[in-house]
């Protein structure tokens, strides 16, 4: 795992197996354990893609605290077909518990139930 600090952007990047998560909150490492504030982070950024995300290309992962708990918030773009005919891309925002890896919340367009996803797994686009 690598941790880089960007003073210009006032954030740190935690990178594991070429998958990075940014955070502007206080992080620390004790032994082999990562902490966000005083909370343990058990799931690393590369494991977020295995957390049950819908097929999409994740272009942003942020580690932050919501209601006192560490979470990852991912933003991704999913390709597929609307009404099984019209090719479209949709934006998906997913919140994942950084301690258990469970998907807490997922936001997609209301008409997502009419959308058929291409692909079978989430991937990470590294820019």
Q: What does this molecule look like?
A:
The structure is a single chain. The chain is mainly β. The chain contains one helix and twelve strands. It has one helix spanning 45-48; strands at 2-6, 11-16, 19-23, 27-30, 33-36, 39-41, 57-66, 69-82, 86-97, 103-107, 115-117, 123-124. The strands form three sheets. Strands 7, 8, 9, 10, 11 and 12 form a six-stranded mixed beta sheet that branches. A hairpin with a 4-residue loop joins strand 1 and strand 2 (11-16). The radius of gyration is 15 Å and the shape is elongated. It starts with a strand and ends with a strand. The mean pLDDT is 90.
Descriptive labels:
about 130 residues; mainly beta; six-stranded mixed β-sheet; three-stranded antiparallel β-sheet; 1 helix; 12 strands; about 55% strand; elongated
Pairing-aware structural class of the strands and helices? mainly beta
Unreliable segments of 5+ consecutive residues: none
- Helix-strand topology string: EEEEEEHEEEEEE
Largest pleated sheet? 6 strands, mixed
Number of helices: 1
Number of strands: 12
Termini separation comes to 18 Å
Percentage of helical residues?
under 10%
Return Rg in Å: 15 Å
Overall average pLDDT:
90
% residues in beta strands: over 45%
General shape: elongated
């Amino acid at each position: 795992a690598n941790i880089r600090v960007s003073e210009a952007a006032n954030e740190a990047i935690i990178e594991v197996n070429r998958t990075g998560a940014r955070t502007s909150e206080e992080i620390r490492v004790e032994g082999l354990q990562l902490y966000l504030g005083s909370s343990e982070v058990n799931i690393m950024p590369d494991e977020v893609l295995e957390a049950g995300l819908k097929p999409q290309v994740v272009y942003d992962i942020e580690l932050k605290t919501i209601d006192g708990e560490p979470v990852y918030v991912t933003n991704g773009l999913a390709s597929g077909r609307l009404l099984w005919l019209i090719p479209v891309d949709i934006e998906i925002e997913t919140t994942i518990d950084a301690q258990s890896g469970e998907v807490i919340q997922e936001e997609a367009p209301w008409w997502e139930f009419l959308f058929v996803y291409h692909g079978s797994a989430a991937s990470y686009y590294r820019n």
